[in-house]
Amino acid sequence: MMKSKLYSFKKGIHPSYNKERTSGKPIELLHPKGDIVLPMVQHIGAPCTPLVKKGDRVLVGQLIGEANGFVSSPIHSTVSGTVKAVEDRLVPNGSKVLSVVIEDDGLREDDPSLSKKLDYRTMTNDEIIEVVKEAGLVGMGGAGFPTYIKLMPPKDKEISHVIINGAECEPYLTSDHRAMLEKTQQVIDGLKIILHLFPNAKGYIGVEDNKPDAIAKLEELTKNEDNIEICRLETKYPQGSEKHLIYALTNREVPSGGLPADVGCMVQNVDSAIAIWRALEMSRPIMRRIVTVSGDGVKNPGNYNVRLGTSYRELLEHAQWDPENTAKVISGGPMMGMALSSIDVPVLKGTAGILCFTKDTALIPEESNCIRCNKCIEVCPCVLMPTQLNLASQIRDDEMFIKYNGMDCMECGSCSFICPANRHLVQSIRTAKASVRAKQKDKK
């Protein structure tokens, strides 16, 4: 079923979305050409412990990194081949992480564990959650929170809404859009598996109204599903934020420091729903993801289905990037992504996009004095006062920063985008948050 109402949240911005170059391009399967690099941290939580050593032969889907602790997620080999090294390697955020480096033999030989036959309809909830845990599933929207934990809300939290996040509000990115078009039934079936865990809940798939083709296809395939609704979302940034999506669809506000389960909701990304389906229906751990490569620095932008561990450089070369005229490469979207210091980094579970910008596009104007226009306050989706948080950061007053609820900032960049004085608001807020966290950690 589909609702005609247009759902939205308070405040927000309307940037240029620049999705036209890739939204109509089907997903293209790319095979790796070089070594596969699999960091032992691709999730929020404790790093994995490598289970292989140099010289070992590994198979597709073989467990090579064992999860450590409750908040952690295992890592699997995405190719068959020989382990060349277990060493520190650079990852997109600029840090070095212990990684397993595999020389791909091109044989694509599966681990025997991938031949298991499962039927979630005959399994207990605990058995389903264990499969999701062992498959290494994490939030594919970028956060990287282990999916199995999301599927285990506290027993006193009744889940009434299971929401699939198809907003994809970040400019340029279209990987979720293409997934909803080309893997529509898998998205729906992934949602059905989650609903099987929560029989008293109803399913919702929220899609921004700049994707009418995806909405139409989802509507067609769910027209006989009484327990699933397709909801049109206003095209507005940051519509895909978990808390704001929940508010848009349910009019419920997740409390400061709270979780979606506190208001009876659970949110999963489109790619996460597909991964859940693959884990339960095909016994496949998370080994691939769809990555949008775009920006005015590439001649052949597109959406590419790649194996985790594939080098960013390989994707950029396939997309015919222009290194001479590329001033900045961003991992993720332009609003919340990270500028890269090197393109010799691997695709991770949370890699949704790689963007190349020329000097004109990547230019960050110099700051000027605040003109007290309050535009940043008018658009802040978290109802904060970015001007005061910016001031607290500049004078290094952590108490003032906390007083103005700075830790609730989601760093969406709406304030910096709208500021006529080009104040680097979100950057200063990010710095202050890091300072507060460091001091809180020292006190423990």
Short characterization:
The protein contains 15 helices and 18 strands. The chain has 444 residues and is of the alpha/beta class.
What would your notes on this structure say?
The chain is an alpha/beta fold and 444 residues long. Among the domains are: 2-26 and 115-281, 3-Layer(aba) Sandwich (Rossmann fold), CATH 3.40.50.11540; 375-443, no CATH class. The chain has helices at 20-23, 125-134, 147-150, 175-182, 184-197, 212-221, 242-250, 270-281, 312-318, 359-362, 375-379, 386-394, 398-403, 414-418, 425-443, and strands at 2-7, 27-29, 36-39, 49-50, 57-58, 63-66, 75-76, 81-90, 96-104, 161-166, 202-208, 228-233, 265-269, 288-294, 302-307, 326-331, 338-339, 353-358. The strands form four sheets. A six-stranded mixed sheet has the order 2-15-14-18-16-17. The chain has a five-stranded parallel sheet with strand order 1-12-11-10-13. A hairpin with an 8-residue loop joins strand 6 (63-66) and strand 7. Helix 4 (175-182) runs parallel beside helix 6 and helix 5 crosses helix 8 (270-281). It is globular, with a radius of gyration of 22 Å.
List keywords for this structure.
single chain, 444 residues, alpha/beta, Rossmann fold, six-stranded mixed beta sheet, five-stranded parallel beta sheet, 21% strand, globular
Please give the structural blueprint.
Blueprint: E1 2-7, H1 20-23, E2 27-29, E3 36-39, E4 49-50, E5 57-58, E6 63-66, E7 75-76, E8 81-90, E9 96-104, H2 125-134, H3 147-150, E10 161-166, H4 175-182, H5 184-197, E11 202-208, H6 212-221, E12 228-233, H7 242-250, E13 265-269, H8 270-281, E14 288-294, E15 302-307, H9 312-318, E16 326-331, E17 338-339, E18 353-358, H10 359-362, H11 375-379, H12 386-394, H13 398-403, H14 414-418, H15 425-443
Parallel strand pairs: 1-12, 2-15, 10-11, 10-13, 11-12, 14-18
Antiparallel strand pairs: 3-9, 4-6, 5-8, 6-7, 8-9, 14-15, 16-17, 16-18
